[in-house]
Every structure is written in structure tokens, then in C-alpha cells.
Amino acid sequence: MTKALFFKYSSSQNYYYTKDINDIMADARTPAVIKYKDFTTLDEEDEFLKRYYKFNEYDYKIGLLVEYYKYHKDIARMFMLPTTDTLHTYHDKRRKLEYIRITSMLKSTENKKLKYHKEFGNNAKGGNKI
């Protein structure tokens, strides 16, 4: 009797134990996949920096990061389907639009600074032309 019940319901047990593995392979947005990716990132020994920045580059890069993150928006993490999928696609599109807007704004201010320095040369830095 026990053996017959086992064979009858073993497929549901297989589904229960393989669901998380299938989600990881499908790269689904589920709590199990997020936890798995967090653990693999923590276990990673490689360095993720593209390069090291020199001390004289630091002020410029930090200034750009500060300007970018002034406009950063926090998004709540939810795991209720299908609401989650809708919210993620909405926020992804919104994030792309914000990124384009901010980068174009930063480029225009950078171009204005360069144009100003080219026009006025040393006078822009406080030097005198004779």
C-alpha cells in the first residue's frame, strides 16, 4: 500500500524539489533565484572592478556619481506574480528614460564647461592675458 502511494504521488514530490532548479535555469525572478545569485556573488573570488582610478581622477568621478545619484529612485521589491512582472517592466522602461535624460543633461553641462574654457582660455581659470 505504501509503495503504491509513493509511486502515485512521487511526481508531485519531484516537481516540488526541482521547481527551484528550473527557476534558476530559466533565470526567473523568484526569491530562490535571488538568494542563489546573492550567494554565488558572495562566494566569487574574482574582482569586479574594471580598473583602478588614480587619486587625481577621484574628484571628477565622485562628482559625476554624486550628480547621477541625486536622481536615483528606490524601488520596492515584490514577489507577487503577475504584479511583479508588470512593475518590473514599468520600472525598467522608466529607468532607461531617466538614464537617457540624466546622461544627456550631464553631457550638455560638460560641453558647456569645455566650451567656456575654450572661449576664455586662461581667463576662465583666473589668469591674465596680456
Short characterization:
The chain has 130 residues and is mainly α. The protein has helices at residues 2-26, 31-43, 55-69, 83-120.
Describe this protein's structure.
This protein is an all-alpha fold. It has two domains: 9-48, no CATH class; 64-130. The protein has four helices and no strands. The protein has helices at residues 2-26, 31-43, 55-69, 83-120. The radius of gyration is 26 Å and the shape is elongated. The termini are far apart. Mean pLDDT is 78; it is low at 126-130.
| Low-pLDDT segments | 126-130
* Whole-number mean pLDDT: 78
Number of domains: 2
Q: Name the helicity range.
A: over 70%
Number of helices: 4
Say how many strands there are: 0
The chain-level structural class is: mainly alpha
N-to-C order of helices and strands? HHHH
- Our Rg estimate from Cα atoms comes to 26 Å
Shape: elongated
Strand content: under 5%
Strand count, sense and barrel status of the largest sheet are: none
Distance between the termini: 105 Å
Topology readout:
Elements (H helix, E strand, L loop, with lengths): L1 H25 L4 H13 L11 H15 L13 H38 L10
Brief descriptors of the model:
single chain, elongated, 2 domains, 4 helices, 130 residues, mainly alpha
